[in-house]
Design a protein that fits this description.
single chain; alpha+beta; Helix Hairpins; Heat Shock Protein 90; 3 domains; 5-stranded antiparallel β-sheet; 5-stranded mixed β-sheet; rod-shaped; histidine kinase; phosphoprotein
């Protein structure tokens, strides 16, 4: 019951369907009750008319004379009527019977010898007083059968009416569902509003509020993006100058202690520069104006990425290589593909220890391309797999320099390209032996097709 109450409280359509169905059921039951009562009464009226008609027929044809027996079942006239005829006179009167000559003409109900009768008494033109009687139980049985038949239309139409009502309610709420789908498809990367022409009047104020909220949200996000990009640009120049000065200091003769301090200074400046570059990349990936799409070779882009990261990999002692020669062509902005692969490879090298390996492979599937980057690093804790795509999230691993923006940038690009990413910890004998990152990008012909893994 609590579940039903919660469901009704949460859904206007459910409440409307529930109450409309309840009203239909109650009204159908009430209508069926009235129909049964009226049909039952009408059946009794018809049975009374039948008794009256039989009496008129007997009177008209002169079927009764003084010599008739006391009881006569008129089976010869109507076998199904079960009407009993009695001639009421003093000669054949039975003192133990309720049927006596003193009975008033017309209709009456009486009980005789354990049975209840509906009796019609009349005096014929020949002067005979007769009674036509029907057993009340039989009359009620016939009346109930007729009344029950009258319920069939109501019982047949009620479920049809319930189904049609719920279908109509669903139909009426289709514009609401359509508006919800439109809101769900809106992108935060460009200003969007919901067309009010197709919105029902009842929810138009709500949709107008949504449009206003979306506009404010878009402008707020644009301001944040511009602030981050401008701040990164403003800091890039002084950081470059500081880096040059640190290199100049490092080239001069100094004591070992001074060299260690200069080395730490250079490391800090390099981390700051890397953070600024990642911030600028993150802001650029979220900009509305992007490079035009064109055919891009995955293998060629990977070679460019490896050329840019090989020095860093060699300095760390990490073996990086392509394990497949399969190539695939995707139609997208070259900077998107390069940035995506660069961040994946850079992350793999960054968190792989010395003498470790990073393997990259490309696989052409039916309607998408899979790019797999597998390393021999420490992996990611299972509980953190869903959090690593948040900006600046680095978990508990702070031993390696980084900004925590790499996978966030990858996620932003994949959302725009309608791709997917899957992270999986590799294990051997219940020990984590590395992380495998699989990226799935739809081909140009199947760009709007959902990737099913």
């Amino acid at each position: 019951m609590d579940g039903l109450q919660k469901w009704l409280n949460r859904s206007v359509k459910a409440r409307l369907s529930f109450w409309m169905s309840l009203i239909i059921i109650v009204m159908s039951v009430f209508s069926a009750g009235l129909s049964f009562t009226f049909s039952f009464y009408e059946a009794h009226q018809l049975q009374d008319d039948q008794l009256r008609q039989f009496g008129a027929l007997i009177n008209h044809q002169g079927l009764i004379s003084a010599s008739q027996p006391f009881d006569l079942k008129l089976s010869e006239i109507d076998k199904d009527a079960r009407i009993f005829l009695r001639v009421l006179n003093e000669d054949n009167a039975n003192s133990n019977s309720a049927f006596t000559p003193r009975m008033a003409e017309g209709f009456t109900t009486l009980r005789d010898k354990g049975r209840t009768w509906r009796v019609y008494v009349l005096t014929t033109d020949a002067g005979q007083k007769i009674s036509l009687a029907q057993d009340i139980d039989l009359r009620n049985e016939f009346a109930r059968e007729g009344a029950l038949y009258s319920l069939l239309p109501t019982l047949f139409l009620m479920p049809i009416l319930l189904i049609l009502t719920n279908l109509l309610i669903n139909r009426i709420f289709l514009p609401v569902s359509a508006s919800a789908n439109k809101i769900n498809r809106l992108s935060t990367e460009q200003p969007c509003v919901i067309d009010l022409d197709s919105v029902p009047l009842e929810i138009k104020p709500f949709v107008m509020s949504i449009n206003s909220l979306l506009a404010r949200l878009y402008h707020s996000m644009e301001q944040q993006k511009r602030f981050i990009a401008n701040a990164a640009h403003e800091l890039r120049t002084p950081l470059t100058a500081l880096s040059l000065q640190a290199e100049s200091l490092g080239s001069q003769q100094s004591t070992p202690a001074q060299q260690r301090k200069i080395s730490r200074l250079q490391d800090g400046l390099n981390r700051a520069r890397n953070l600024l570059e990642q911030l600028l990349t993150h802001a650029r990936m979220q900009e509305n104006g992007r490079e035009p799409e064109q055919p891009c070779s995955v293998q060629d882009t990977l070679r460019s990425v490896l050329a840019d990261t090989i020095v860093y990999a060699q300095r760390k002692g990490v073996d990086v290589g392509l394990t497949s020669s399969t190539d695939a062509t995707l139609r997208l902005a070259p900077i998107d593909l390069y940035t995506l692969l660069k961040n994946l490879v850079d992350n793999a090298i960054r968190y792989t220890p010395a003498q470790g390996t990073v393997d990259i492979s490309v696989h052409q599937r039916d309607y998408y391309v899979e790019i797999r980057v597998s390393d021999s690093g420490p992996g990611i804790p299972q509980q953190a797999l869903s959090q690593v795509f948040e900006p600046f999230y680095r978990g508990d691993n702070h031993s390696e320099p980084g900004s925590g923006l790499g996978l966030s940038i990858v996620s932003t690009i994949l959302k725009r390209l309608k791709g997917k990413i899957v992270l999986r910890n590799k294990d051997h004998q219940q020990q984590v032996t590395g992380l495998e990152v699989s990226v799935f990008l739809p081909t140009h012909q199947h760009f709007n097709r959902a990737i099913s893994l």
